[in-house]
Amino acid sequence: MSSPITADERAALRETVATLNAACEVGDPTRPLLDERTTLALLVQVATQVPRLLDALDTAEAERDEARAELAVARQHQREASLTIRSVEGLRKERDDALAESDQTLARQRECLRSREEQVRRLRAEVTRLHALVADLRAATSPAWDEDTVTEVVAGILRDSPSGYAADRCACGWVYTGLDGDLDQHVATHILAVVRRHLPVRPGRETIARAILARYSSFDPLSAYGIADAVLDLLPGESRATVQAEALREFADTRGVNVGDDDDEWWRGYRQAQRECLHDASARADRLENGAERG
Prior knowledge:
- The chain is mainly α.
- It contains eight helices and no strands.
- It has two domains: 98 residues; 146 residues, no CATH class.
- The longest helix has 106 residues.
C-alpha cells in the first residue's frame, strides 16, 4: 500500500513544524507569532497536512495489523511445519527401527533355515545308513525267496505239524481238537509266522499250495488249497473269510451234522464234502476278484 503523504509534503510539514518551534522559542510566550498573516499561513499548512498525517497513521496501523496477522499465520505455519518435521522424524525413526527389526528377523530366519537344512542333511544320511544296514542284514540273514525256498519252508513247518487227522498234537504244544478246519487253521498260523518274518513279497495261493503238494505227494490238493486259503485269510487285505463263511453256513444247513454218529467213514465223507465246499468258495472268490461275478 502506498503512503498518503508524498516526500515533498513531508518536507513542507517538517519546515512548518520547525518554523512554529522557532516562533515559540521567542522570549515572551504571549507575543504574537511574527505577524497575523504568517501565523494564518502556518495554521493553514498545519490544517492541510494533519488529515494526511492522520490518514498515514491509519494506514500504518492497518499495515501493522496486517503484518501482525501475517506474522501470526507465518508462526502457525512454522509450528505446523515443526510438527510435520517432528512427525517425519518419528516416521523415519519407526522406519529405521522396522528395517532393523526386519534385518534381524531375516537373519534369524536364515539361521533357522541353515539349521533345518543341516538337520535334513543329517536325517538323510541316517536314512541312507539305515537302508544300507537293512540291506546288509537282509543279505546276511534272508535266503533268495523263490518257489523252491517257499516249498522248503512249508515242508519244514509240516514236518513239525500233525501229519493228517490221525495226529492229535503239534510240536508247538497245540492239541488237535477234531473240529472241522481246525488243523488247517493251525498249520496256516505257522506258515503265516514264517512268511511275515522272512518273505519279502506276498506269496500267492497257488505258490503256497504248490509248495505243499511238491513236498508231500500224498497230501490231497483240497487240503493244500485249504491251508493256502487259511494263510491268505490271516494276511491283511486278502481275506476270503466272508465267502467261505457263507459257504460253510450253506453246507451246514443242507448237510447237517450228526454229533452222535461214531462212524469214521461218515466223518471222512463229511470232511471231504466240507473241503470241496471250501474249494468251491475259493474259486468263487477268485471269480469275484476278477470281476466274473457280481453280488
